[in-house]
């Protein structure tokens, strides 16, 4: 049997059909992402683009931190919590750099929402990988 047939055979043997919950999660995420720009534009009427982005990011950080604490307390035993390795300086530097670039991207997107329509701003933001790449 050729390599390609073995790979295809192993994939088809392990295939698990998606559940209804996964489609519901996908639908909810799609609606949330579709409404994000509209909600940001509405928020900018009250507080401004940089404050809007700050609020989005710190609320997300709190939610993700609580999720992390819950996953650690439920999934990992106390012995596994101490076995985690310390990240290297280069990894921390890359993580900080990615955070700065990601935050700048969201801030510039929020600023663009003050200058143009939601559709135009969202289209430009989603086409940036095509333009840069």
UniProtKB/TrEMBL annotation:
User: Can you give the residue ranges of the EamA domain?
Assistant: 24-131
Q: Name one Pfam family in it.
A: EamA
Q: Which InterPro entries match?
A: EamA_dom (IPR000620)
Q: State the superkingdom.
A: Bacteria
Membrane-traversing stretches: 21-41, 53-72, 92-111
Record key words, sorted: Membrane, Transmembrane, Transmembrane helix
UniProt lists the family membership as follows:
Belongs to the EamA transporter family.
Q: What is this protein called?
A: EamA domain-containing protein
Source organism: Cylindrospermopsis raciborskii C07
């Amino acid at each position: 049997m050729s390599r390609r047939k073995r790979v295809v055979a192993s994939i088809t043997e392990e295939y698990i059909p998606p559940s209804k919950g996964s489609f519901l999660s996908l639908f909810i995420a799609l609606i949330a992402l579709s409404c994000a720009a509209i909600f940001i534009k509405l928020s900018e009427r009250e507080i401004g683009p940089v404050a809007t982005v700050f609020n989005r990011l710190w609320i997300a950080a709190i939610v993700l931190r609580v999720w992390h604490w819950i996953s650690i307390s439920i999934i990992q035993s106390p012995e596994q919590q101490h076995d985690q390795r310390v990240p290297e300086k280069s990894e921390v530097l890359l993580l900080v750099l990615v955070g700065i670039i990601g935050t700048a991207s969201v801030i510039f997107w929020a600023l663009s929402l003050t200058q143009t329509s939601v559709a135009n701003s969202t289209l430009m933001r989603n086409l940036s990988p095509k333009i840069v790449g």
